[in-house]
Amino acid sequence: MNMQEQYFDVFIAHLRQTITLDEHTVHKVLDSVEIVKLKRKEFLLTPGQPSKSMRFIVEGSARCYYLDENSQEHTLQIGIENWWINDLYSFLTQKDSQMYIQAIEPAVILQISQSNLEQLYQEVPEISTFFRIKIQSAYVALQERMLENLSTEVYSRYQKFIKEYRDIEQRVPQYIIASYLGVTPEFLSYLKKKNL
């Protein structure tokens, strides 16, 4: 089995956790997918471009972040294998993104363009069901995170984060984790030492 087949197998296995696909529909789906390979720190999306694809991480890790007016990074999303990563607002509205999507490690991303996705919605209704469920889940997760940031102490958020993202600390620089949690790397380091 070559690498492309392995990537496709991972992707189809992921879809089949939520929907049923027969071999005919699997081929239709795979014909709509593009493989993108990123080097460490390479960008997949930068501000000023509309996000025109849904993106699934097959290998490696990536993050979605923006820069505020003081050039401070704010990480909104960290993605590892079997996670989706995107500027969903830009994708759904087709407005220019304000986000960066950047590989943290060398990464392999499978992406489906908006036009291919629209065609799949017509030809493979299960795909429409899959993305409806994914987008609903993304909305719920976003609201949970917003409420958590307002009501939960930072160290508790950090503990939940490392539980959700197993082995993440070996893969992702501390400053990105701190940015995701909304604190400085120094403050996160202080909290970790304090709670040893």
Largest pleated sheet: 4 strands, antiparallel
Radius of gyration: 18 Å
Q: Count of DSSP E strands?
A: 7
Strand content: 15-25%
Structural shape = globular
Please state the average pLDDT score.
Answer: 92
Give the strand order, joined by hyphens, for the main sheet.
2-6-4-5
User: Structural class from helices and strands?
Assistant: alpha+beta
Order of helices and strands: HHEEEEEHEEHHHHHH
Fraction of residues in helix: 40-55%
Q: What is the count of helical runs?
A: 9
How far apart the termini lie comes to 46 Å
Unreliable segments of 5+ consecutive residues = none
Question: How would you describe this structure to a colleague?
Answer:
The protein has 196 residues and is an alpha+beta fold. It is built from nine helices and seven strands; from the N terminus they run ααβββββαββαααααα. It has helices spanning 3-16, 23-31, 88-93, 114-123, 125-151, 154-164, 168-171, 174-181, 185-194; strands at residues 33-38, 43-45, 53-59, 62-67, 73-79, 100-103, 107-113. The protein has a four-stranded antiparallel β-sheet with strand order 2-6-4-5. It has a three-stranded antiparallel β-sheet with strand order 1-7-3. It is globular. Pfam families: cNMP_binding (PF00027). It comes from Myroides odoratimimus CCUG 10230. Residues 21-127 form the Cyclic nucleotide-binding domain.
How would you sum up this structure in a few lines?
The protein has 196 residues and is of the alpha+beta class. The protein has helices at 3-16, 23-31, 88-93, 114-123, 125-151, 154-164, 168-171, 174-181, 185-194; strands at 33-38, 43-45, 53-59, 62-67, 73-79, 100-103, 107-113.
